[in-house]
Input
Amino acid sequence: MRILLVEDERKVASFIARALREQTYAVDVAETGARGLELAWETSYDTILLDLRLPDMDGLVVCHELRRRGIHSPVLMLTARGLVEQRVEGLDAGADDYLTKPFAIAELLARVRALVRRGLKRSEATLRLADLELDRHRRRAQRGGVNVPLTSKEFALLELLLLRAPEIVPRTEIVEHIWDVHFDSGTNLVEVYINRLRQKIDHASPVKLIHTVRGVGYRLGLKE
Output
């Protein structure tokens, strides 16, 4: 699952991002509304956390623009404002939920889980390919009816490959999606995690689903 956090206060952003990553979410952080819109246009996010007060534009404007562009990711508005009229204004702008600062991190995580579930209901909650099945809601994988234990990064990688199957997913896109937009693209972590997935998904099956496209990336599907 991938979250976009649009928050200009660096300490607050770092605290929230760390808490989300500890819950296995991949998190991208934008410090301005313009950067948030750019990332939301480039990447499909399961939830967007949007601060109301940003240095370049109001969060309400950002939310309006997200919806105008056809970006339907659930939006949780974060703000120090607590008046009912202001919460209504945020919801009318297209936000799905509203959380007033200061908030308990446990409540934030609960709101995020609820929005992610809501977003999954709008899309496919279960992904399938051949005898491979991924339950995105329960975060469970099976191959041939047998449970496959996955770490959070392995799950995110398999989810990405399934969402794009049978297309090729470039290595650089995997790095940005699973780790961070600023992650070192020279790392060999992609190869390490692909090999781990192969051991868990393909090793015991005569039908191999994970394929390397040399010099480009990887694809999930039946052998061509």
About this structure: The longest strand covers residues 2-6. The first helix runs from residue 10 to 22. The chain has a mean pLDDT of 85. The chain has two domains: 2-122, 126-220.
